[in-house]
Design brief:
The structure holds two protein chains of two kinds. Chain A has four domains: 1-155, ANL, N-terminal domain (Rossmann fold); 182-317, Rossmann fold; 330-399, Roll (Luciferase, domain 3); 405-502, 2-Layer Sandwich (GMP Synthetase, Chain A, domain 3). Helix content of chain A is 31%, strand content 26%. Chain A is built from 16 helices and 25 strands. The longest helix of chain A is centred in the first third of the chain and has 18 residues, at 29-46. Chain B is globular and about 25 Å long. Helix content of chain B is 55%, strand content 0%. Chain B has a single domain (3-76), classed as Non-ribosomal Peptide Synthetase Peptidyl Carrier Protein, Chain A, CATH 1.10.1200.10. Chain B has helices at 3-14, 18-21, 35-49, 66-76. Chain B is built from four helices and no strands. By secondary structure, chain B is an all-alpha fold. Classes of the chains: A alpha/beta, B mainly alpha. Chains A and B meet through α9, α10, β24 and α15 of A and α3 of B. Chain B: One of its GO terms (molecular function) is D-alanyl carrier activity.
Chain lengths: 506, 77
Amino acid sequence: MNILKAIQQNSIGYSEKIAFKSEDRSITYGELWEQSDQLAAYLLKQSSQAKSPIIVYGHMKPEVLISFLGSVKSGHPYIPVDVSIPFERINKIIESSQAEFLIATEDMSCEMFSKHPIKIIKEMELKKLLVDDAEKSSSKHWVQGNDNFYIIYTSGSTGNPKGVQISANNLSSFVDWMLVDFPIEREQTFLNQAPFSFDLSVMDLYPSLCSGGTLFAVTKEMIANPKVLFEGLSQSDIEVWTSTPSFAQLCLMEPSFRQELLPNLRTFLFCGEILPVNLAKQLQKRFPNARIFNLYGPTEATVAITKLEITKEIADSHTVLPIGHCKQDTELLVVDENGAPVAEGEKGELIILGPSVSKGYLGSPELTEKSFGIMNNKQAYTTGDAGYKKGGLYYYLGRLDFQVKVHGYRMELEEIEYSIAQSNYVKSCIVEPVYREEKVDYLTAYIVTNEHSFEKEYQLTAALRKELSNLLPAYMIPRKFTYLDQLPMTANGKVDRKLLATGVLA
Amino acid sequence: MEKQDVYDLLAEVCQDDVVKEELDMDIFEAGLLDSFGTITLLVEIEERFGISVPITEFNREEWNTPNKIAKELADRA
């Protein structure tokens, strides 16, 4: 499917229909198409670099969608940057991506970025140019084929975030699969819970826009205030629920979260972290009319590549849910350390081959070469995920390195350690996940300090948290800070992470 | 349920003893508790004190400091 063509058709067929709704604001298909045309025309005039990336900063506003479409209609990929991302990190993204424009859909102080040659379109300017009567943009400029459609930045182990490039072809492969292999019908209402800088959001954004659906956004303000969240949900009439399992877990804390609240909810789509069996069972009880799907995939292979419907039988017969079957145009291999396929039932590393696999990390040929390549004539990504196949189903076993998912957010422990070590108070540091019922509950930082003048440990912790909040999004900051005289070492001189993880020193 | 029990529970959930000493600090602003930590807190409140607080009644204006949380719980005990 040509994504833009499909949205264009909906803008004609359903021009008055609401495409996106967020708190008290909404935008129709007609407005979305017309205003993104105006932005595209402006970008075509102002841009001096074909295909240069455009950073879109904001949180779940109609202008964010307009900016995404305006970028790709003028031949530029967009980089979604949520308001939860601190300025220091945005600076790194600007540097690494060489983005030509930054579109600020929210008020932001842009002086921070003055050391870069980036052209900034501020909130007020954007508003003005969207009501301008510019000429229509032409489809000949649209992003297409192997050109980048979006670039999503994800945590990198060296301390710098890395940009995963997703082409129009990659995205088409994903959206085609969603619309064919899942019970998604035309004109349904989709939950949009994940911020756009997190690729889980792509699972509702394009399937909805391509099928004439309406996106119902849950903002971070709503999540922080569950009363408002549930008032919103009760008015939403959501039919397709896309979220992390953690977000559904949060909603289950409210007794009224059941079929009566969302009578037309028919489909749950979960991705981004392990779906616990208990969560699936609770949802089956509360939402008897809905079907539940567990999906798996890294950002590097465009959101997700495997799925399994979690029926009562599957939930009752498993303690750990399988990730299911691979989508038809894609191959999933399980290999040993030498890259040779292992026998069924044996554990190995997962390798993904197929048309939704990214071309690699933007501006990082070394990192790209490490994980991407051509196998069986297909683009292949070596995931770093461990898994196995049994009875025709794939199972996920966790990471082979120091990447973790906390409530669906992907991060490299080494990047957090690197950021903590920037502080003058810190001599050395290790960050370890703490698990609860299969999932990471929170992170603990084990720190050996330099001399400091704080009387109490909590004062030091507060100072460190403050420093970190300038470098990392809040979800990457450890919940617990533990101070040690020295980090425990193994016999061969490495930090003994296992000993830290057992918590005997804490 | 004594006030101190509430502070102890908070310190466990937040993983930081500061909440036992700075009773008027905003634990959300300080980054000690987020939406997911809130779930843990409400589950523990129900298990330990037998008080069930629906998440829709938990708003950050009334439940943001150790003192206010202790008061809210005392009102419901």
